[in-house]
Structures are given as structure tokens and as C-alpha cells.
Amino acid sequence: MAWLLSRVAAAALYLVLVLTVTTSTSPAAAQRFPARARPTRSGYLNVTSTNSLYFAFYEATDPVTTPPTAAPLLLGPYLLNSTALSRNRKRWNRRFGVIFIDNPLGSGFSAPASEADIPRDEPTIAAHLLAALQSFMALDGRFRARPLFLTGESYAGKYIPAATKHILDANDRLPVDQRVNLQGIGIGNGMTHPIAQVTVHADQAYFAGLINAKQKATVEAMQNRTVSLVRAGNWTGARKERNGIISFLPRVTGVATSFNYSRERPYPTRPLLDFLNSDEAKAALGARRDVAWVRCSKADIMRSAKRDVEAVLARNGTARVLLFQGVFDLHSAPAGRRLAGYVQRSGALANVVIVGAGHMAAGDNRPAAQAMIEGWVLQTGPFAGAGARSSTS
Ligand SMILES: *[C@@H]1O[C@H](CO)[C@@H](O)[C@H](O)[C@H]1NC(C)=O
Ligand SMILES: *[C@@H]1O[C@H](CO)[C@@H](O)[C@H](O)[C@H]1NC(C)=O
Ligand SMILES: *[C@@H]1O[C@H](CO)[C@@H](O)[C@H](O)[C@H]1NC(C)=O
Ligand SMILES: *[C@@H]1O[C@H](CO)[C@@H](O)[C@H](O)[C@H]1NC(C)=O
Ligand SMILES: *[C@@H]1O[C@H](CO)[C@@H](O)[C@H](O)[C@H]1NC(C)=O
Ligand SMILES: *[C@@H]1O[C@H](CO)[C@@H](O)[C@H](O)[C@H]1NC(C)=O
Predict the structure, then answer these.
(1) For the CA atoms of the chain, what is the radius of gyration?
(2) Which InterPro entries does the UniProt entry name for this protein (predicted)?
(3) Contact (Cβ atoms closer than 8 angstroms) between residue 44 and residue 52
(4) Could you give the CA distance from residue 193 to residue 200 in angstroms, rounded to a whole number?
(5) CB of 231 closer than 6 A to ligand 3?
(6) What span, in angstroms and rounded, lies between the C-alpha atoms of 247 and 56?
(7) Is 262 a catalytic residue?
(8) Ligand 1 contact via 48 beta carbon (within 6 Å)
(9) 313-345: per-residue pLDDT in tens?
(10) Sheet order of strands, 52-58 included
């Protein structure tokens, strides 16, 4: 169905957690990191006897009901420009509390006790996330009752379905007062099922007018090689071959970045890295000063998580599933669509295409992303009457 931006009559509120910072900051730092940008709670959540994951929690700024009833894990409430933080008017923690967890261990501010502790498989990553959520729930007795939605983008398209299956299975075994109130998952431009996603690059770029027929055949040949490698379980080879496609497209088309083919310049990543690694930011965020914020790259990006999504949906609406894509993404976009915004639904599953956005869809088109997450969680607008149980209490 066509999807237009409109005011969402919100009926629930989100919860976020921030960390209280006692470290004094210089005037310059105070400007770069305004007090309002600090998390409600933050710090480290134990996942094993020796390891913990970094988290930052932002409580809902404009909840519409009390007590809080929903708590998605979402995109951040502030924006970083080249020099300072500015308020994101289209933040996701307007109605909801937002928890950020640097997961897996070894990413972001989550430093492993030893290199050997970095998980290499989805089951361990999922077990760590559940352990971190349990540690989070233990911080405040009121957290556990709030509906929880896991959201993420790109690689999260793999570990969110795996973690969700793990959590729902654990809920079946746990006593009621130790269950996680997981009600849905939202995945943006996720690499959930690479074998299907890797075969649309040629069509997407060709029908967008970015490449010619000869280049299309070249991309198709690369796609076919990637598929063969995936079928053979050669994840390293498959990732390399897919990276070949991702770098081929900008090279022959001249687009500035494969993440958003409408952008004139690549996304600046350096300011984020420098900012997060400043002592001021670490103090304000409650991150360990001795830990460097790092991005991590996973070897198994081409492994499919389709069966985990199917397993979640097979639970007949225990948890709802939202898939959303930015149309301008060359990594994992829908093929050949030029839409203003579209919602397709089938039972507990919803698929959304966001216009004017690339791979980081939730950051690119913030008004649309905010309307989407609020409508989906609260089951209003195009998401009214979705298949699963109600999210309001
Ligand atoms: C987390 O683990 C650390 C190190 O083992 C321990 O000192 C601390 O008490 C634990 N925190 C909680 C809340 O269990
Ligand atoms: C960045 O944000 C700060 C704070 O809102 C603002 O003063 C500054 O002008 C912005 N800089 C750029 C380059 O947009
Ligand atoms: C790619 O594989 C498809 C399906 O097997 C086949 O029809 C097509 O000819 C192949 N294209 C190239 C360029 O290898
Ligand atoms: C995986 O694929 C790469 C690239 O095609 C190849 O070089 C490598 O030998 C393959 N590895 C295995 C174990 O087959
Ligand atoms: C879901 O519903 C289908 C069809 O009614 C049924 O066959 C299946 O057993 C149900 N699954 C669960 C986990 O309840
Ligand atoms: C991505 O491309 C769209 C379409 O041109 C543009 O409106 C948007 O600003 C871009 N996003 C970013 C973050 O640059």
C-alpha cells in the first residue's frame, strides 16, 4: 500500500536508559556533547564472568502514556555533524525508550577480555545479547514488563533473527518473571538472505539507469559466482566476490558511494570515529577510556538467516517482523522500484520501502523512519491491526 507521512496518533511510550556522568567536562566538551545528549543510563552489561557489552539507554522524551509500554533498540537521538552534536528532531526515542548495545563483543566500546573471546558464530552472539538484556532488565525492575523490539540494520539482518529465535526459545524454558517481553523485530537494509539479495544488483542498477547492458552482464556473472560460492559454503570467497560487485558499481557508474547512489559525496566516517574516541565523548557516554571504539567486520556476512526469520514467523504472531529498505542502497535494496514509500503486509510480517534513503535508511530519511517505527510499534496508520498481539498495555 502507498504510504504517506502523516501524524501518528501514538498510544504508547518508549523507554530508554542513560548513564549518569560524574566526570567534569571542559566548556568546549560541554558544547560538543550537550548535557541533553547524554544517555539516561549507560555503561557495561555483564554477559559472562569476564566479558560485558557496552550499552547506552535513552528514555523516551515525549511519551504519551504512563507507565512506559514499549522499548525498542533503535537509532540514536542525536546527530553528529562535522563538529558537534545537534538534536535529532526525528529521533526514535520520542515515544520509546531506546537501548543501544555494542554487540557483538569486539565491536564499538565492547572490548573482549581477550581476543579469543570474540564470538565467531551466531549462537554465541545471540546468547551474549540475551545475557546483556537480562543484565539490563536487572537494572530497573520496571524494564522487564515493557514490550521490547529489536531493531538494527545491515549485518544486524543476520544476528537479530538469530537472537530473536534464541530469546523466544529461551522464553519457552524460563519462568515467567525471567522472560524477555520480545514483541517484534525491525531490520533495515539487512543482509538476511544473501543468496536472494545478491542477485538483484544487476537489475537494480540497470533499471535505475546506472549501468548499460554490457555492464549488467558483467554484474550478473559476478552475482552467479557469488551464488555458487554461497552454495558451496565458501563464506570468505562469497564475501570477496560480493565486495567485487559493491566496488564495481561505483567505479563504472561514478556514484560517490554505493550506500546511497543519489549522494554527491561519500558518507564521512572519520568525524564519527574521532568524536567517539575523544575522552569527552567516552566520559559522557560512560564508556571505558582505555577502549577504542571500533567497527568490526564479520566473515559470515553471506550466510543466510532466512530460516531464523521463518522460525520467528512460524510462531504465529508471537513477534512481528518489520523489514525496511532505502531505495537508493546498492548493497541490499529492493530491485527496480521508484516509490515514495510503500508498505506490504502479510500477517505478522511487514515490508517497507523508504524513499530518499540509502543503506543507512533510518538516518537518511529521518521523518519517514520515525513515522515508520512509531506506526509499526504502535500499530497505527498502514500498520493498524497487524497480525501479532497488541503492543499497548
Ligand atoms: C559484572 O562483572 C564484574 C566483573 O566480574 C563484577 O565485578 C560485577 O559485580 C558484575 N556486575 C553485576 C551487576 O553482576
Ligand atoms: C553543527 O552543529 C552545531 C550544534 O548544533 C552547530 O552550531 C554547527 O553550526 C553545526 N555545523 C555544521 C557544519 O553544520
Ligand atoms: C547467471 O545465472 C543465470 C541463472 O542460472 C543464467 O540464466 C545466466 O545466464 C547467468 N548469467 C551469466 C552472465 O553468467
Ligand atoms: C573460496 O573461494 C575463493 C575465491 O573464489 C577461492 O580462492 C578459495 O580457494 C575458496 N576456498 C575454498 C576452501 O574452496
Ligand atoms: C501455527 O499455526 C499453524 C497453522 O494453524 C500450526 O500448524 C502450527 O503448529 C502453529 N505453530 C505454533 C508454533 O503454534
Ligand atoms: C540519499 O539520497 C537521497 C536522494 O537524492 C537524498 O535526498 C538524501 O539526502 C541522501 N541521503 C544522505 C544521507 O545523503
Answers:
(1) 20
(2) AB_hydrolase_fold (IPR029058), Peptidase_S10 (IPR001563), Ser_caboxypep_ser_AS (IPR018202)
(3) yes
(4) 12
(5) no
(6) 34
(7) no
(8) no
(9) 888 778 888 888 766 555 554 443 534 367 888
(10) 41-46, 52-58, 98-101
